[in-house]
Specification:
2 strands, 30 helices, about 0% strand, two-stranded antiparallel sheet, Serine Threonine Protein Phosphatase 5, Tetratricopeptide repeat
């Protein structure tokens, strides 16, 4: 708002209210008008406070409270005036209205709280701020945010506060889900008695199953198999029972009880049994028990997991006899895709072990190579032009564009920026955005691109400048020191939802790097309460 002189402001307000003052005493109208002039002048002074630090946030809140006090005085002390009536019914007079002012004061309070927390960040202050925001929410969706806060408190070890928060949730299902998650956190930190006590009070089967699963897992990890078996029957949910059973089987395998472990796995279907057997295979390989590992791998029912084990085996050994077994096992696979992957790995392993002839011929004759793998191989060899030409052989537009984007990124990383730039024109929009972000992250160009992006919105189309490129740049920044640059770019995104989503991503990256003050300071740019709450809890989770 442009600054105006006090005399002009007074004249404008008197002109606005003159016609409404006929039936009101001169003193009442004059008093109301005088207070309103003071309120508008205070409002203007708030807009002139430009700083983003804690002191500035505090000054803004103080001035806003002075404005609010002046408006309250008009309503309380000059209720007979037309101005008071307009304010009471929520009309906007000049730049002010009661609902808008209340919302602005509340935003300023939260901004000050956020700024103070950013100065000296702790889990408690972050969670307290999230609680303050959620208190202002209405509707069932707020229940889920209260649940998230309770879980954050549990992650911080604040169990009493966490339980109090969870039990304040009116919805029984959401409340029990929160209590279940708290029980899980207790179990994970070794507080098994308290976790078990909490789990025993849950009445909803899925929530109780999740809690008991975590407790049983902790018992298994501690080697208390007897306790685990006794609690196992309390897990009613089939998926949870299966997951714990697999964990139990793997624990037995690690103790050398292979027969018992495999017997347990017969109680679940092939795909999940295959996944568990592959994990058991990994345990055996890590212990150097290759003969047992091979027996486990060769008996995995699902080709996908058997292939993973075979590939792992090929990397783990130089033994010619085992290589021959791998070839034979691969030949027996029915899934062509996984057979190809396995043959390709055999070829690489054979090359490393000097078993070039037979294995390479099998790769060529039986497996072949997909375009994707051929491109990957050429990129690994630094043959960028060859990889480019191979990628062009895709008949699918999306696959060709995706493969070319991979070529461009690898070329850029290797310093071939001009080559990568040349490929941009041949990419589909989403791939172009991804590659452009990669280029920016490498050479430091952070300006908005001039190309516009068309975003469909129901029956209309809105043109927003460079949003995908900006978001891609942010996601591709791998140097934490450049996050300030990314923040300035994100500020320019016109769409509030996309802008605040980008800011939230930046805050999360700061938090992952342990820069919690920066993470919280960046969140001052977010106004939407749900997004702000989610972002705060993400920071708290990293801090814990």
């Amino acid at each position: 708002m442009k600054s105006i002189t006090r005399s002009v402001l007074r004249a404008s307000i008197f002109a606005l209210l003159f016609s409404a003052g006929g039936g009101v005493s001169a003193d009442t109208a004059a008093g109301a008008n005088s207070l309103f002039v003071r309120a508008v002048e205070g409002w203007q002074s708030v807009e002139q406070i430009a700083g983003n630090d804690t002191a500035s946030a505090r000054r803004k809140l103080e001035r806003l409270k002075e404005v609010s006090a002046a408006i309250d005085s008009i309503i309380a002390d000059h209720s007979g005036s037309e101005l008071a009536v307009k304010l009471i019914i929520g009309e906007t007079v000049g730049p002010l209205s009661v609902p808008m002012l209340k919302e602005t004061v509340r935003e300023a309070e939260l901004k000050l709280q956020l700024s103070e927390c950013a100065d000296e960040p702790t889990s408690s202050c972050i969670i307290d701020l999230a609680v303050s925001i959620v208190r202002d929410m209405s509707g069932d969706s707020s229940f889920y945010y209260i649940k998230d806060i309770a879980i954050s408190q549990a992650q911080a070890g604040l169990y009493n506060e966490s339980l109090k928060t969870a039990r304040s949730i009116p919805d029984r299902k959401v409340q029990e889900n929160a209590l279940s998650q708290i029980s899980i956190k207790m179990a994970e930190t070794g507080d098994l008695d308290q976790a078990l006590n909490l789990a025993s009070g849950l009445s909803i089967g899925s929530a109780a199953s999740q809690a008991y699963s975590a407790i049983v897992s902790s018992k298994i990890e501690l080697g208390k198999f007897g306790d685990a078996e006794r609690l196992f029957e309390k897990i009613e949910d089939n998926q949870a029972r299966r997951d714990v059973l697999i964990e139990y089987a793997k624990a037995l395998a690690s103790k050398g009880q292979m027969e018992t472990s495999m017997d347990l796995l017969t109680r679940i279907d092939d795909v999940y049994r295959s996944a568990a057997m592959k994990d058991i295979f990994e345990i055996q390989v890590s212990e150097g028990d290759y003969e047992s590992a091979w027996e486990t791998a060769d008996n995995i029912p699902d080709d996908s997991y058997r292939c993973q084990a075979v590939v792992r085996f090929g990397i783990a050994t130089d033994d010619r006899e085992i290589i021959d077994r791998i070839i034979e096992s691969t030949l027996n696979m029915e899934d062509g895709f996984h057979k190809e992957i396995c043959f390709r790995t055999i070829g690489i392993q054979a090359n490393r072990s000097s078993f070039l002839g037979e294995a390479r011929r099998l790769v060529a004759e039986r497996g072949g190579l997909s375009i994707w793998h051929a491109v990957k191989d050429e990129l690994e060899a630094g043959l960028f032009e060859d990889a480019y030409r191979t990628a062009l052989t895709y008949t699918s537009d999306s696959s060709r564009s995706n493969s070319l984007a991979m070529v461009a990124k690898e070329a850029a990383s290797a310093g071939h920026m001009d080559f990568a730039e040349r490929i941009l024109a041949e990419l589909q929009p989403e791939d172009e955005a991804s590659v452009r972000g990669k280029l920016w992250s490498i050479d430091g160009r952070a300006e908005h691109v001039s190309r516009l992006w068309k975003i469909a919105n129901d029956s209309t189309a809105e043109w927003l400048p460079g949003e995908p490129e900006v978001r891609s740049f942010i996601s591709s920044v791998d140097n934490i020191e450049r996050m300030a640059e990314a923040t300035e770019i994100a500020r320019k995104i016109p769409s509030q939802a996309l802008r605040e989503g980008a800011i939230s991503s930046i805050s999360a990256e700061y938090a992952k790097a342990g820069k919690f003050s920066e993470a919280l300071s960046s969140l001052k740019l977010i106004r939407e309460p749900y997004k702000l709450t989610e972002s705060l809890l993400d920071v708290a989770a990293e801090m814990n």
